[in-house]
Recover the amino acids of this structure.
């Protein structure tokens, strides 16, 4: 069984809750190697998203993802706004006007999101960014999807891989973003963008069931 | 005429850069977009999109930015904007000044973008600067104004030469500067009271030298 627009909306409401719950942790991580605004910005953006979804849930999963993109672009400052905004925008385009997302479409959407983030931020694996979480997530998602997994199964695998990918940023020296100004001093810290990507994917799993 | 947008994490910085560049280019639309939209540091997509519209001009808009995420926001807004919008990697202050003067002089989108990008180099004179070519014009010019070839006078010189078919070099001591570049002229550091040598080649060489002499004789309208 796939995810209809209402399921996608529920998953995003869950994501908003997780972001708010981890706001302080993201603030702390970002203070260590960035400008400290990541937790606040994401909380504001997802809060605005919940308000928009409360008004009206768009008709298709793609339209819901498009609403996420436009809301995050206008409400989240810093690098996260354009990066997550581009990710959701590309994901929205990739699923077209499908009425439901199956495992294959979820994997396609994640792949499109990753391509969008890479195009916008010019980061590669190992630069200590959200790309380090999203890249293994896409690989895991595609593997499960091609084995016939459903949306929940694909997202579960993606979330698990993203979590490991985020942890892998700890020893890295940042080469992109504000943390790159710190050079060697950025090593030993979990990247806040990779952490929030992993948190979001894990939160989305609940909505896909 | 090309318009400019200055994107910064700081509202004060964006405003200040726009003010500084505007002083040398009174007719150019320069729109600042600074801060997160609620009084803090950051970048605001809506503000950048609005600034691009506000600076909108027939020939296009050049967007300059300060730090990483400002570029991403500028890129997104440029992709969504109607008309030609170029996001240019350049030093913010020097790039804005050079771009504004180029726009004021009637440069096209590519020319304004190049002026901004070229602003990183400072006072380097072109290697083919005329030395003592036979068809050249030259004159010794005394800077009788108070500040010498400072920002505004340098901008006046560069602007007065825009549109002329002449290659003009200003020499002060051992240093030489392409007179089309405000930053190069300022980089000479020629103070009030100094004497500089103006030399020009090309069909409009005589007119070019005359214009610089006139400006200096009027104390650059100070």
């Amino acid at each position: 069984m796939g995810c209809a627009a209402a399921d996608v909306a529920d998953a995003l409401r869950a994501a908003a809750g997780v972001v708010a719950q981890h706001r302080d942790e993201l603030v702390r991580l970002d203070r260590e190697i960035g400008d400290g605004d990541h937790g606040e910005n994401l909380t504001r953006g997802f809060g605005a998203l919940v308000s928009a979804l409360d008004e009206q849930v768009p008709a298709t999963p793609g339209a819901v993802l498009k609403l996420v993109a436009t809301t995050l672009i206008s409400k989240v400052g810093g690098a996260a706004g354009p990066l997550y905004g581009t990710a959701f925008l590309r994901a929205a385009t990739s699923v077209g006007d499908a009425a439901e997302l199956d495992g294959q479409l979820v994997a396609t959407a994640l792949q499109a999101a990753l391509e969008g983030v890479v195009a916008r931020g010019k980061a590669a694996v190992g630069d200590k960014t959200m790309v380090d979480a999203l890249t293994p997530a896409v690989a895991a998602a595609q593997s499960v999807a091609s084995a016939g997994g459903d949306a929940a199964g694909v997202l579960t695998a993606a979330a698990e891989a993203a979590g490991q990918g985020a942890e892998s940023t700890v020893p890295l020296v940042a080469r992109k973003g504000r943390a790159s100004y710190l050079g060697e001093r950025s090593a030993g810290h979990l990247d806040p963008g990779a952490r929030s990507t992993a948190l979001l994917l894990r939160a989305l799993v609940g909505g896909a069931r | 005429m090309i318009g400019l947008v200055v994107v910064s994490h700081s509202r004060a910085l964006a405003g200040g850069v726009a003010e500084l560049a505007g002083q040398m280019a009174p007719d150019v639309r320069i729109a600042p977009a600074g801060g997160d939209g609620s009084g803090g540091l950051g970048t605001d997509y809506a503000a950048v999109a609005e600034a691009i519209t506000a600076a909108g001009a027939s020939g296009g808009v050049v967007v300059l930015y300060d730090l990483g995420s400002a570029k991403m926001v500028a890129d997104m807004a440029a992709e969504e904007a109607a008309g030609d919008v170029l996001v240019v990697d350049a030093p913010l202050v020097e790039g804005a000044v050079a771009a504004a003067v180029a726009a004021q002089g009637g440069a096209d989108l590519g020319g304004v973008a190049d002026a901004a990008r070229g602003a990183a180099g400072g006072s380097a004179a072109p290697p083919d600067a005329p030395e003592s070519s036979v068809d050249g014009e030259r004159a010794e010019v005394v800077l009788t104004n108070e500040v010498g070839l400072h920002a505004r006078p340098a901008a006046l010189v560069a602007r007065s030469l825009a549109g002329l078919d002449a290659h003009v070099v200003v020499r002060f001591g051992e240093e030489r500067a392409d007179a089309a570049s405000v930053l190069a002229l300022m980089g000479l550091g020629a103070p009030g009271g100094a004497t500089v040598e103006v030399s020009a080649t090309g069909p409009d060489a005589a007119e070019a030298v005359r214009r610089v002499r006139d400006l200096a004789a009027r104390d650059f309208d100070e």
Summary: Chain A has a mean pLDDT of 94. Chain A is about 70% helix and 0% strand. The radius of gyration of chain A is 16 Å. Chain A touches chain B at residues 35, 37, 41, 73-74, 77-79, 81-83, 85-86, 120-121, 176-178 (CB under 8 Å).
